[in-house]
Amino acid sequence: MHGYTATQSIVDGPVKGEDFRRGRAAAQNIIPSTTGAAIAVTRAIPELFGKFDGVAMRVPILAGSVADITLVAKRETSVEEVNEIFRNAAKKSQWQGIMNVNEDQIVSSDILGQPYGAIVDLTFTKVVGGNLVKVLSWYDNEAGYTATLVRHVKAVAEFLKQK
Prior knowledge:
This protein is of the alpha/beta class. The protein is 25% helix and 25% strand. Strand 6 and strand 7 form a beta hairpin.
């Protein structure tokens, strides 16, 4: 679920191309759409090509989005094990400022201004049949994106200084 963006109209109107849904009023509709994020993930991790995809649901909010991730685990697992994996990962230095976990019953406005690319909502982790896993991860599609972009720019600058 992603807040509507500047590319969407605030009133019903014509659109370029064949995706007529993009021409519907963003402020009053839930609009199914494509997402470049799924393509970007498979470019970054080629092993996931053909095994990973996604859709975007544009919703009538300005910011505060959630990724709904469903996967089939290689082995049986539990909600407790999945959540513990995320808790442990959030403590590691490589994920500091990038990923956090949450155990409160939050909604989209609660994460506005948060700098994380992912805030895993441990209250919504589900495991069905032992290996079908669902995880929700919140992110501020403005502040979280900007903070992540700044981190990457700084890392590239440091890398270039070393050359």
